[in-house]
Amino acid sequence: MLMRRRAIQPKIKVDPTSTDRVVDLAALGGIIYGIAIVLLNWNQIPNRVPRHFDFWGRPDAWGAKTHIMYTLGFMVSLYVILTVLNHFPHLFNYLVIITEENAPRQYAIATSAIRWFKLELVWFFAYLLWTSINISYGRSTRLDPWSVAIFFGAIVVTEIVLFVKSRRAR
After folding, report:
1. For position 127, what pLDDT does the model report?
2. Is residue 17 within 8 Å of 115, Cβ to Cβ?
3. What's the structural domain count of the chain?
């Protein structure tokens, strides 16, 4: 079997735009919000919290309140991994061949995509934490199905927009 060798992509520093900085701050805000709602509610959270939801957003599995910490830990881990990953755009796979000429544009688009993806994921998990805590208190009975659809729709739309930008910026 003949293996194609991946071309070495140029290593260049991509300076974040002002929009990138705002998106990063908003994602960090989601982390702070998630940590705050868990810490502020921890002593009052009942020992039975939802740990899985069915298609309609109803809890279909329950667990100890430590599952809230697992969700928070996963959210923080995603944030850290995506933040670190964003410092290495030369390691990403691209839709076009990366050259010295197009690398700055392609890397800027790719790092922006990661930032938006991070923002959307962090706030989705913050929403899951908030809703799980409210369900455990008995204030709510399920996730709002429209909220889940909106979060996933936002991810899909964002990635499509950035995909198109990448193709146009060859």
Report:
1. 96
2. no
3. 1
